[in-house]
Amino acid sequence: MPYNCAVIVREIWDTRDLVGTVLKEDGGLNEAVLTTRFEPEDLNALEMALQLKDKQGGKVTAISVGQPRNVDVLRECLYRDVDAVVRVDVPSVKDFDTATLARMIANTAQKAGPFDLILAGLDIVDGENSLLGTHVAASLGVDAVTYVDALDEIAPGRVVCKRQIENGSEVVETKLPALLVVGVALLKDDPRTPRSAKATLKLKHKKTPIPVSTLQDLGIGDPASLKTTVLAGYEGIPQRVIESKQVDPNDEPSLKSMLDDIRRGG
Amino acid sequence: MIENFYSDNEDLKFHMEKMVDWKKIVQLKENLGSSDCNYENAEEALKTYLEMLQDPIGEIAAKRIAPRAAEVDKIGCAYENGEVKFPDGLKKNIQDLTDAQLMGITIPTRYGGLNMPKIFYVAATEIISRADASLMNFFGLQGIAETISVFASEELKQKYLPKMCSGEWTGAMALTEADAGSDLGAVMCKAEIDASQNPETGEWKIKGTKRFITNGCGDVILVLARSEDPQKYGGGRGLSFFIVPKTPAVKVRRIEHKLGIHGSPTCELYFDNAPGYLVGQRGRGLAKYTAWLMAAARLTVAAQAVGICQAAVAEAVKYANEREQFGKKIKEFSQVADMLIDMQVYTEAARTLLYVTSQIIDLQEGAEMRGIKEDERKYSKFADVLTPLAKYYACELCNKISSDAIQIHGGNGFTTEYPVERLYRDARITNIYEGTSQIQVNWAILRILKGDLDELFKELSGKRYAQADLNALSDKVRKSQEALKECVEFVKGKETEYRDVVAKKVCDIVVDLLVSYLFLAQAEKWDYKRKVAKKFIQDALPRIELNRQYVLSGNGLELDILNQQDSPVAAGSR
Q1: Which of A35, A73, A195, A200 to mutate to test the interface with B (most CBs of B within 10 A)?
Q2: What is the pLDDT of residues B506-557, one digit of tens each?
Q3: Which listed residue, A32, A111, B328, B568, has the most CB atoms within 10 A of its CB?
Q4: Contact B99/A195, CB-based, under 8 Å?
């Protein structure tokens, strides 16, 4: 039986292989030197949705907030055979806190749905808090399961999934619709390893118009009113400078002193 | 883990982004702006090509295929009860290529392909081969679908191409027999047809044995077989080309146990009156269709060789950066650095020849399609020399470069702990299959002596640069080009035997000159290439002189050394 899924997808800073100065003097990001990429955790969530579609049928809809910078994540979703995409038409996600973004996504999902499942990747862009998914669930009033590694079973009205916990995993069941925050794919041949683009879809969708929803369409008058946190101050991270030391491996006292340094956290 | 085999390869990117005349290629290949064309203009096509090289091709190669390569090599293919068994990694690789819809790259879209230019396919082949050289023998078999697309009847195209493009069916080409290797005119496999049937469209029966058939267990086999009466049409003139679908009458007798490319099953096939369908015209199987298919296959093998070079250089550089001896990284030792520089420069040299050749083939095929006779004649003349040269050069270099990669690794490189020994084993087939290096040289020399490259040399040597240093280098190369003229004149006046002895040296001179000029043209567009051009020309000029002296010496083979009854060389065979 087919199930319809929505997937939340984001474009994030590409922090791999950073060279040069990426922090400004005040500790803030020097955005001009950075590029972006498709949030890899969201690709895991997308893969889970596409695998469910391959197996059971149904539609996959991808939702994103804000304008693309280097990577158009929604177009990338089309290249991977999602059925529909929606962009929330705001200039930048930076202007909003997690609760506000969650409301925008929730309203989009309500408008584009109904969905049996809403999938999100583990969030590394909200300060490792991974809260966007759970905020969306709260906004929609549906159950949320976090750190999901696999969908074990899905049936009308219920889903059984495996979630990671400390020192192992547990199997939990919840009712549909539900929001799942998908965990990190670690293994090379993890069945969730995200698929690449499909060549003919790349040809087909390279200029497909991406539908947008304005805040007005979503019934959000003043997004500032949705804000639950206020930035009261900002302190940048000082650049860490790690000096390397050469230790003579044959000299016992230097080795001991090195170990002491390590113990002290030096 | 390296993330993407296209975006991490600055040299390949440079060729694709800066050196290829895409506008011309796309205008010939596509009906820009029409409803059956995927692009509005050439820029859009180029953007799509480059994006596609990155994802899915570079992405799948780095993240999926490369991590499986060691296991595929270790387990290899197996033969049990008449069936060929693939290692799991290979099955996954084929599935990934199929899922990404990459099995019909050059085939027209109406048959389910992508209608991409040859040069794009060659770049994709290089990228895939870098991840796993043996997988080229599946990915690179798209030439079979292409042969069907160019020469077979519409009915056969409709029947076979869509499933080949979707990856549902894989192909094989069955040319070689036990006694017909390089000499395909000696093929014995028979094709017969009942007098009641129409030979053009009817069912032929194929009978005979074929050997060394890559993926002979595949679903669609192109077979070269003797269809004509040997009394009337002997040798190559009696051979035709057939599509033979997989049926119980096509039996895999065994697979070879090979030094390398373990992820590619090499089968012995027995056709037991297997049904087959004629491709093109009778009697043109060898001269036209096999020649066409082999030219395509040679280019693909050259791409495979460049892919192996790239993998070997990457491994060697990585190791030389990590490994420390005498308190410093080994890349800081001059002899090691010298090897690394050579590996890099000659990989770039092989790549240069590969992509110039591919571009010329695209221009030739495009001109043919558009009926631009003058261009077709010009480019086809160039392509006929450049294809064997590119194959010869890249494959010989990939043997040398993968061997040097082991040398950089020292004892570690000789163990299976490091991937370089696999690269070295995989490299070894490249200068053997689809025509040995010697066969390539034979092909090329005839055309070089005929002057088929003169026009190209004229174009290259006449080029002037804005920078004085490039002009100075170009002048030196032009001076060196006199050696080629001298050699060609000298060899023309000699008998065939002498020509064969020095053919390789003449080809080496040609390649050195070509690559020198091509590097200079690259230096105009990328500052780094000035250094590469300078280094290459510095190496090439004395090499050209050495080869010139050898060719002009007039010394033939010292056959007495080989033939003398009591010579130490012959001792083993007595």
Answers
A1: A200
A2: 999 999 999 999 999 999 999 999 999 999 999 999 999 999 999 999 888 8
A3: A111
A4: yes
| Chain B residues closer than 8 Å to A196 by CB | 55-56, 59-60, 63, 96, 99-100
Least CB-CB distance to A202: which of B51, B96, B99? B51
Q: Give Cα separations from A117 to A45, A79, A127, A132, A140 (angstroms).
A: 11, 21, 25, 15, 12
Residues 6+ apart with CB under 8 A from B326: none
User: What pTM does this model have?
Assistant: 0.89
Contacts of B102 in chain A (CB under 8 A): 199
User: Does the pLDDT value for residue A23 go beyond 90?
Assistant: no
* Distance in Å, alpha carbon of B11 to nearest chain A alpha carbon: 19
Q: Does B324 touch chain A (CB under 8 A)?
A: no
Task: Report percent pLDDT > 70 for chain A.
Answer: 90
Return the structure tokens found at B372: 């631009």
The SS3 of residue B15 is helix
Closest C-alpha to B403, from B535, B315, B289, B511: B315
The interaxial angle of helices B334-370 and B118-131, nearest 10 deg, is 150
pLDDT of the residue at B529: 97
Q: Which residues of B are catalytic?
A: 434
Q: What gap in Å lies between CA A133 and CA A140, rounded to an integer?
A: 11
Alpha helices in A124-242 (DSSP H): 132-140, 199-205
- Burial state string for A77-91 with b = 16 or more CB within 10 A and e = fewer than 16: bbbbbbebbbbbbbe
Environment class of A168 (CB within 10 Å of its CB; exposed 0-12, middle 13-18, buried 19+): exposed
| Rg from Cα positions in chain B | 24
Nearest-angstrom CA–CA distance, B363 and B361: 5
**Residue ranges of B 1-30 with Cβ closer than 8 A to chain A:** 3
| Residue B96 touches chain A, beta carbons under 8 Å | yes
- For residue B9, give every residue at least 6 positions away whose Cβ sits within 8 Å of its Cβ, in sequence order, or none: B127, B310
> A266 pLDDT exceeds 60?
no
Domain ranges of chain A: 5-237
Buried b (16+ CB within 10 A) or exposed e, A178-213: bbbbbbebeeeeeebbbbbbbbbbbbebbeeebeeb
CB B48 to CB A196 under 8 A? no
| Better-predicted residue by pLDDT, B186 or A234 | B186
Q: Is the interface score ipTM higher than 0.85? A: no
B199 closest CA partner among B275, B282, B273, B272: B282
CATH of domain A5-237: 3.40.50.620
